[in-house]
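User: Please predict the structure of the protein below. I'd like the answer in structure-token form so I can feed it into my own downstream comparison script.

Assistant: Understood. Taking the following sequence of 457 residues as input:
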Amino acid sequence: MRTIVCGAGRVGYGIAARLAKERANVTIIDQSAALVRSVTERLDVQGVVGSGAYPEVLAEAGAADTDMVIAVTASDEVNIVSCQIAHSLFGIPTKIARIRAQSYLDSRYADVFSRDNIPIDVIISPEREVADAVLQRLTTPAAFDIKSFADGRIWAVGLRLREDCPVLDTPLNQIRELFPDLEITIMGVHRGDGFFRANVEDQLQAGDEVYFVCDRSKVDRAISVLGESQARARRVILIGGGNIGFAVARSLEDIGQTKIRLIEQDGDRAAAIAEQLDRTIVLEGSGLDRELLREAGVADAETVVALTNSDEINLLSGVIAKREGARRSNILVNEPEYGPLAQSVGVDRFIDPRAITISTVLQHVRRGRIKSVYSILDGEAELIDAVALETSNLVGTPLSEANLPSGVVIGAILREGEVLLPRADTVVQPEDRVVVLALREHVATVEQMFRVAVEFF
């Protein structure tokens, strides 16, 4: 697949890096010659200096023979124009654009991005997706990672195992005998610096970070067995009233039963969002101000979430909030290096918007009937939600005879509204929604499993 990526910032670089690892033909465009030079020196990609909104720049990047353009510059307008030109002048089949301004995403103007108007096939809204991720972590605070699949029916959960976890040192194939109501599939384990696909003979250890999938309704029970069960946060302090902070506050208001305080440093912005929120108390000031945090009730807060545009402020706010008595702190980080640093100084969870955006892009890059993709551990593995077709070699054969690669595991199946956990005699049927974990080197195999064969037509 030949792809043009417009924008060589954090997200553009991350997308180019992932595609380059998969030996895709990638050209990256950016107006900064230094950024383009840095990317091309570090990755096996081509680079063009200029604006992706200019026809001659897209032409130089090879737009005439390109399958996909991904526009993720800092400007919504440049991203929009890049996709329009890619469609109108070069006939590029797939156009993906990152759009941040919420006015573009207003439901009243939903028709603006369509083939007859502005032909963008996929709109990525990092703010909305990050807000959703924050909400999931607030509702399930014991997990360090959560992703929903199959229209929300199947959840993948990342959980760190404590020393008192009752399933330690037990082969995975014996866990269901010990806990018959623990209806989960453990798919992958992050131990030390390595990540491996879980096998039935494997035994878990304290400190392991495991990824499991199950029916959404079974998540709470699974966490109560495997980890420390924690109730949903009822008293929350949000630091940062930008698009993400505002979206989280409004969603928490919609859910109800949550006492919300929001701290915003800019006075005009604080006043504006205070008028739009009904049950959120908005305080003007800095999340680094201990007195203001105390005024917001930090000592009684179950979770403080720092969502400003500054990684440094988010990190320090999270640390200060914990020292002032908050039970948990979650922070937004844009630089990957800040995540492990945050956890080493006591921050409980971090959210990486770059990783979330890359996962969204990958589900449209992946071939086959792929509905959703979630990249974990910077691409070490992917969780994939796909639809099984009649022509798939996965269909009609018991899983014990399906010859799945060693780096692939099927976690759950949604069939006619029922979530099924696979066993050796399980047979995948056409139109099943299948949630799969694949190690990086086996992703292409999973794509092939769910591709539309010629016989399908």
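That's the full token string. The mean pLDDT is 90.
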